[in-house]
């Protein structure tokens, strides 16, 4: 979870990005962004996010959350992520992430864990060298079994 000071910094950064795009951080957008910041490791769908935002902003509608997510995705403030369940989830890009972070997806319990170190720098250099393709970003999800599920299987 992002601490409160970092949440405030990220909120200010996002507000600046919106202003640069000619948009305002409306109360509904603010509530949506604050919820994304607070729950940034949860990988929420639009509907899950809506339920959480509605707790703080009871008058918000699902369509408003969808529109906000679309704006945030266009501005590359959030990324759309799809795991094995086929549901589009939203993942906040933080200031410290030059690249999109990687994910570990447990195929038993569905838990998603984030890896924040860039594991593919050598691969990017090879792609550029061998194919003349400049990589702007990449996404990587490792599928497997988490430590908790492995421990449970070992006990059985």
TrEMBL record:
<feature type="binding site">
    <location>
        <position position="138"/>
    </location>
    <ligand>
        <name>Fe cation</name>
    </ligand>
</feature>
<dbReference type="GO" id="GO:0045892">
    <property type="term" value="P:negative regulation of DNA-templated transcription"/>
</dbReference>
<dbReference type="InterPro" id="IPR036390">
    <property type="entry name" value="WH_DNA-bd_sf"/>
</dbReference>
<keyword id="KW-0805">Transcription regulation</keyword>
<keyword id="KW-0238">DNA-binding</keyword>
<comment type="similarity">
    <text>Belongs to the Fur family.</text>
</comment>
<feature type="binding site">
    <location>
        <position position="106"/>
    </location>
    <ligand>
        <name>Zn(2+)</name>
    </ligand>
</feature>
<keyword id="KW-0408">Iron</keyword>
<dbReference type="Pfam" id="PF01475">
    <property type="entry name" value="FUR"/>
</dbReference>
<keyword id="KW-0862">Zinc</keyword>
<dbReference type="InterPro" id="IPR043135">
    <property type="entry name" value="Fur_C"/>
</dbReference>
<dbReference type="GO" id="GO:0000976">
    <property type="term" value="F:transcription cis-regulatory region binding"/>
</dbReference>
<keyword id="KW-0479">Metal-binding</keyword>
<dbReference type="GO" id="GO:0003700">
    <property type="term" value="F:DNA-binding transcription factor activity"/>
</dbReference>
<protein>
    <submittedName>
        <fullName>Ferric uptake regulation protein</fullName>
    </submittedName>
</protein>
<dbReference type="GO" id="GO:1900376">
    <property type="term" value="P:regulation of secondary metabolite biosynthetic process"/>
</dbReference>
<dbReference type="InterPro" id="IPR036388">
    <property type="entry name" value="WH-like_DNA-bd_sf"/>
</dbReference>
<feature type="binding site">
    <location>
        <position position="146"/>
    </location>
    <ligand>
        <name>Zn(2+)</name>
    </ligand>
</feature>
<keyword id="KW-0804">Transcription</keyword>
<dbReference type="InterPro" id="IPR002481">
    <property type="entry name" value="FUR"/>
</dbReference>
<feature type="binding site">
    <location>
        <position position="149"/>
    </location>
    <ligand>
        <name>Zn(2+)</name>
    </ligand>
</feature>
<feature type="binding site">
    <location>
        <position position="109"/>
    </location>
    <ligand>
        <name>Zn(2+)</name>
    </ligand>
</feature>
<keyword id="KW-0678">Repressor</keyword>
<dbReference type="GO" id="GO:0008270">
    <property type="term" value="F:zinc ion binding"/>
</dbReference>
